[in-house]
Amino acid sequence: xxxxxxxxxxxxxxxxxxxxxxxxxxxxxxxxxxxxxxxxxxxxxxxxxxxxxxxxxxxxxxxxxxxxxxxxxxxxxxxxxxxxxxxxxxxxxxxxxxxxxxxxxxxxxxxxxxxxxxxxxxxxxxxxxxxxxxxxxxxxxxxxxxxxxxxxxxxxxxxxxxxxxxxxxxxxxxxxxxxxxxxxxxxxxxxxxxxxxxxxxxxxxxxxxxxxxxxxxxxxxxxxxxxxxxxxxxxxxxxxxxxxx
Length: 245
Fold this sequence. Notes:
Elements: E1 7-8, E2 23-24, E3 28-33, H1 39-51, E4 57-61, H2 66-76, H3 81-86, E5 90-94, H4 106-131, E6 135-139, H5 142-147, H6 151-167, E7 171-177, H7 191-194, E8 197-206, E9 209-219, E10 228-234, E11 237-240
Parallel strand pairs: 3-7, 3-8, 4-5, 4-6, 6-7
Antiparallel strand pairs: 1-2, 8-9, 9-10, 10-11
């Protein structure tokens, strides 16, 4: 008998039925794409979908200020983000690394990296528990991948990070960036092997204009679509465009 898996809606209109109902509860999911492909829109859709059901969502940014993420979401969608924050259904936190202003030695840099990773993991755990979050976004892990130069240490750090998220039993979405001119799904080419699913967003030329597309590259425990799906970012949220036969 097949194992029954509890599913969590992605918040993307028309996507859940392409993956047997959504992300599975407690999973760690990786959303990747080049700049401008819709990663922030995807993440916010995921949290707002949870908030509509009374599930608390935490948006942690490692690269932007809270106010910038909040304003980006407000400019894209008609959602009342302020009201959701006031009701403690969504919370934004910035965890950008503080780098020294003066030049430091390689040994000091290694120490700073180690402290940052330990601090990041600890703060994420503390924030999830304090807010009692059901859903978590970490946008993005690319900074962590770039920050740690040693391949072995980078892999260990990412493995520990994913393991800690699973221990929290929160359903997570991590974002990453695909560098222009490459086909690797993340900066280091590692995180996609550690997560439970990988969704790739693209911005591709079709006829005389560019279209956004979405592909489920991987999803454990799921019979998922392997097609390339077009999607639009509408005022009501991201919407997958159904292919008419």
